[in-house]
Amino acid sequence: MNQESAVLVVFPHPDDEAFGVSGTIATHTRRGTPVTYMCLTLGEMGRNLGNPPFATRESLPLIRKKELQDAAKIMGIQDLRMMGIRDKTVEFESEEYLVNMISSAINELNPSLVISFYPGYSVHPDHEATGRAVAAALGRMDKEKRPVFHAVAFAHNSLEDLGKPDVVNDVSDMQDVKMAAIKAHSSQTQLMTAQWEELLLKKDPDLLKRLQIEEFWTYPVEG
């Protein structure tokens, strides 16, 4: 993993960062690299309210905000920015609004690396809108000043269309941190992580790979 001068992470929902890139983030922060996380929504339309319910649609945003703050602390993120867009409406925001928001952060922070979703290969409409805005913001920059864009893709046709990811980060030494970051989003992950604990005792190879390896595609920014 390269030593970066600064990293900007842009995702739409709390827990997007924990599942896909928390090991990479923690590696950067522990190297002393500044990491800024722009989380566009508070995930207030998350499906899990508990069984029996522990939250209402009104209380869930506050719960998920605290979970996001806890996860950021676990990963070592000191600059967490909650952008206040309503969950499941990112796709309906003006692209110009989103692009300007991201461009402003890039101009302020001057990151050498940006991490977000790969447009066209990230399934959820909010994911897609976020990835498109990041790509568009980078496309407006001079090539000489443009940070690298490491994109997360998990659509079923990702490998077929994009080939193998060209960035493979071994984050095995951050496995416990990654697991803790995922657990921090307990309103959405509690039942799943309880199952994962059992699988970890059995050293399940698929789960170990998920926790120890993080893969990205270097996005070919046009412009």
Question: Which secondary structure elements does this structure contain, and how are they paired or packed?
Answer:
Layout: E1 7-11, H1 16-30, E2 35-39, H2 60-75, E3 79-82, H3 95-109, E4 113-117, H4 125-139, E5 148-152, H5 158-162, E6 167-170, H6 175-184, H7 186-201, H8 205-212, E7 213-218
Parallel strand pairs: 1-2, 1-4, 2-3, 4-5
Antiparallel strand pairs: 5-7, 6-7
Helix pairs in contact: 1-6, 2-6, 3-4, 6-7
Q: How would you describe the overall organization of this protein?
A:
The chain is of the alpha/beta class and 223 residues long. It has eight helices and seven strands, in the order βαβαβαβαβαβαααβ. Strands 3-2-1-4-5-7-6 form a seven-stranded mixed sheet, with helices on both faces. Helix 1 links the parallel strand 1 and strand 2. The longest helix has 16 residues, at 60-75. It is globular.
Question: Short summary of the structure?
Answer:
The chain has 223 residues and is of the alpha/beta class.
Distance from first to last alpha carbon: 26 Å
What characterizes the major β-sheet? 7 strands, mixed
Strand order, biggest sheet?
A: 3-2-1-4-5-7-6
Bulk shape: globular
Helix percent reads 40-55%
- Average pLDDT across residues? 94
Number of helices: 8
Secondary structure class reads alpha/beta
In angstroms, what is the radius of gyration? 17 Å
Name the poorly predicted regions: none
> Using DSSP, what is the number of strands?
7
Proportion of strand residues: 15-25%
Secondary-structure element series = EHEHEHEHEHEHHHE
